[in-house]
Amino acid sequence: MRPNEPYSTVDRLDRPSAYYNKNKRRRDHRDDDANGDAPAEPTVDPLANATTLYVGNLSFYTTEEQVYELFSKVGEIKRLIMGLDRFAKTPCGFCFVEYYTHQDALDCMKYIGGTKLDERIIRTDLDPGFEEGRQYGRGKSGGQVRDEYREDFDEGRGGVGRAIGSEYDDEPRR
Amino acid sequence: MGDYDRRQSGGYHRKRRFRDDDEHHDRRNQRRRMDSAPLPVRVRRQLLSIADSPMRRWSEEVQNIAFMVTDNYDDENLRSTFTKLAIQLHLEQPLKTPFVAAVLLVANTRKSELLGEFLTKLAESIESKIALGEWRDVKLHLKLLACLQSTLEGDGVFPLLDELFNRAADLQTASSDDTIGTELVKIIQLTIPYIMVSAHGQFHQKAAELMEKTDIIASEPHALQALVDPFIPESEDKSTASPSLCMLLQKQLQAEAGKDWELACLPRPWEMPLEDVELQEKLSSPSKHPLPAINIPVTVIAGPHPLFPEVYFSVYADQDAQSVPPSTSIASSLIRDGLIDTINILNYNRNVTARYLMDLDCYFAEGTFVKRATPFDELRNFPSNSSTWKPEDVAVDTVFSQIFQLPKAECKLVYYHSVLTEACKLAPAAIAPSLGRAIRFLYRNNPRMDLELSYRFLDWFSHHLSNFGFTWKWAEWTSDTDLPERHPCIWFLKGALDKEVRLSFAQRIQKTLPQEYHKFVGPEKEKDVPDFKFSNPDTPFSKEGQEIGALLRRKATDEEFEPLIESIHAQATEQALDPLVTSTDVFMTAVCWVGSKSLSHVLACIDRTKLRLLDVGAKSEAARSQIVTSVMDYWQAHPGIALSIIEKLLNYSVLTPFSVMDWALVAATTSNGTDGGFSLAQPHVFELVSHTVAKVTTRVRQLYTSSDIDEEGRAKETKAMRELFQAMNDALSSWAAGNKDEMMEDGDGTTTEEAMTRRWGQRWLRVFQRRAAIEEAFLLEAGKTAPAKADDSADAELIA
């Protein structure tokens, strides 16, 4: 949503998550803001024209082709970057999808985020754009940080958290 | 962010969990604060949720809000909050329009100035929406205005509708292709019922006069209607054509007039219960307001959304029990109209849309529907005087009416997929059986459906199943698996299962299928990396193939390939083969093989060899065709990957749209993919051609809507597009008539196979004739506006 658009009577699904706004101190209590007078935002929104999405909660076994098949349903994909384990260089459960237009990225948030791919509910978030290095997991083990301390057993993401279950043999799915 | 974010974060994540807790905490506080919340906040909250509750305490909700606003009429902030929100709410959530109207009507009994002011604002908005050609908003405004008819002086909304009709009549007289006039007539027709329900028992004569006028336009089939019919009859029998929406509405209105405007399905939230008899009396003799002047420009415009005649489509039309309103009943149009607008407007929150679908019965009169989740089989036992309409069926039917809207649905199709997915998640037990019956209808009718719609069905079906563990009762179609390979049922099964595999993987899908279906997901689909044919020493040029593969692997320079290519050329010439075609096959197949690990790999490999491929493609049409053939052959078990590669080759201009189309349909070169017309019966070939054409038309449209006018580029691309459509038309016409050379070689034109191929030709032909017609219509419109107002085209791009 562009900053000056009036609030609609229903929340929108094509807003970025709190992740990129985490530096903003003040929480935005817009739900009950009857006046609708949003405070002026002087800073430039890095996501205002974002064409890239971060896609999370993928299975480690989900392939580029599967991502292509699903994400092409909202528009042609310009570029797809699979998230890799920093050491093993194998998929570690996230990717970046870049579209040609901002609208396609917003539509992806609305229509694909929160649906299933490879039988997992995936998460999408608007992203200011891919930069070299961001394709690698930032956890100590080389994967994503969230996989280090997970308590549950997630077959699609290498079993239990890596900091907890020390050695778990990855069984290839196919 | 949507709720799903929170639902799925099962993992341990300190930050996230903390934030979640925080949010719950906030909400509890809000609820406690509710009563002491400032008045505008309370009004906003209550108006937003009006009629949402299945408790149906309409009069209470309506009075609460109306009293709050009128008791505090002096609070300017409150007044403006209310007015703004009432305007916004009926535009964004149109099923609530009668309830918003009821609040205004009750408020009018206490503070008539409020309604006076509101009407001024509403009239202003109507005027500006008409000027902009925002016809849906005009319709939604008029619906609200019609609900206020009882408070309007004189004939109320009728003079405005008469004026709109005059514009429609002028437009229709000027051109039979006109679509704005049809749209205006539809708006008038959909407004009349709300007038009649508001001013109960009055204006019968006015309505009859207006309907007499609309009848002239509505009863005439529109010139473009045949193009947007969801079905393509196998014989040229006009009587099977689907009726247009305007035509249906006209008949429904006449039937309703005959029943004294009963309009049983519409809610009447302005009718108060017995204990409020005093208020009811005031409502029956309200203070009246003049309708503020609304200026309609002499020339109305089509607006930002392309207009087409609409055809009524229902997936529950041929059932033995009436689970949706029949197309003879005005209820079918009124319920659907409100729901379609809700679905399309709320495309930014599919969860809310799905809620609306599930709670549909809340917004209509008591007794319109049977109880939620009533099993279909029970409908037959219902007494004849009670409704048998299942709310789930009406909801599902409406979503499908959008998926199967020609030429184009308002939103991207995947949106409607996601709405059905959410609806299934909300109420699986209620929705799944309705979907099942819809799927069976669509499957049965697939052979006579427009091919584009058959493809949309296939795409939705596979995507939907991918969200629900790929479970479907395949056993019921088992007998169809033995049909001839060009049969439309095989087309569907093969296409749907291929798409399932693309979203998952072969072994997983095999597990969901009875044995008879395994031939569609054969062992070749299990292989992630298809065999490299040149690994087999018996394949001609296997040595060169392997060597080129090895060179590609080690990212050799382009010069290093040259000796091998030349050796292939020499051998091919000896064997009387086309040298370039032969070497292209070896090279392109090797590129596919070396890049077979993933799309990134093959794209990187193509990127490195782009110059060579461009050079080859530029040299001959046959070589270009061979590039397509090699990609399609290598990835024949995984057409989805082949299509992605070809898409990129088109982007790199290694291939031209013409060469792809030629490969699939025309067969001008020997290395084509028509396979005696079998290509027409392949779902992925339709997908390929369809995407390729879409690429071309999108490009042309961009050139016309872009702010910097590139006349040369426009002319060039438009010419190329027209040539493409013309060539397709020629090729498909021959397939459809059965006089394509490749077809005649094989037989005498009487076999079932030939008949099926002709039918495929007809179905393809219709799709691309329509696409061509739509682009011509676009060019015509663009030609009218583009040169004169260069500045506006930038805005058009923003809107689009």
Question: Helices, strands, pairings?
Answer:
The complex is a heterodimer of chains A (174) and B (800).
Chain A: E1 52-56, H1 64-71, E2 77-84, E3 91-99, H2 102-111, E4 116-117, E5 120-121, E6 123-127
Antiparallel strand pairs in A: 1-3, 1-6, 2-3, 4-5
Chain B: H1 3-8, H2 14-33, H3 39-48, H4 58-71, H5 76-92, H6 97-110, H7 112-132, H8 135-147, H9 158-174, H10 180-198, H11 204-218, H12 245-258, H13 277-284, H14 330-345, H15 350-358, H16 391-403, H17 413-426, H18 428-445, H19 451-466, H20 488-503, H21 506-511, H22 523-526, H23 542-553, H24 558-574, H25 579-594, H26 599-619, H27 621-634, H28 639-651, H29 657-666, H30 683-705, H31 711-737, H32 741-746, H33 752-785, H34 790-799
Helix pairs in contact in B: 3-4, 3-5, 4-6, 6-7, 6-8, 7-8, 8-10, 9-10, 9-11, 10-11, 10-12, 11-12, 14-16, 15-17, 16-17, 16-18, 17-18, 17-19, 19-20, 23-24, 23-25, 24-25, 25-26, 25-27, 26-27, 26-28, 27-28, 27-29, 28-30, 29-30, 29-31, 30-31, 30-33, 31-33
- Tell me the fraction of residues in β-strands of chain A, as a range: 15-25%
Number of strands of chain A: 6
Q: Number of helical segments of chain A?
A: 2
Using only CA atoms, what is the Rg of chain B? 30 Å
Distance between the termini of chain A: 42 Å
Strand order of the largest sheet of chain A: 2-3-1-6
Structural class per helix/strand content of chain B?
A: mainly alpha
**Helix percentage range of chain B:** 55-70%
Give the amount of beta strand of chain B, in percent. under 5%
Query: What is the average of the pLDDT values of chain A?
Result: 82
Number of distinct beta strands of chain B? 0
> What is the subunit organization of this protein?
heterodimer
Largest interface: A-B, 51 and 62 residues
GO molecular function (chain B): mRNA binding; RNA cap binding
GO biological process, one term (chain B): mRNA export from nucleus
Pfam families (chain B): MIF4G_like, MIF4G_like_2
InterPro entries (chain B): ARM-type_fold, CBP80, MIF4G-like_typ-1, MIF4G-like_typ-2
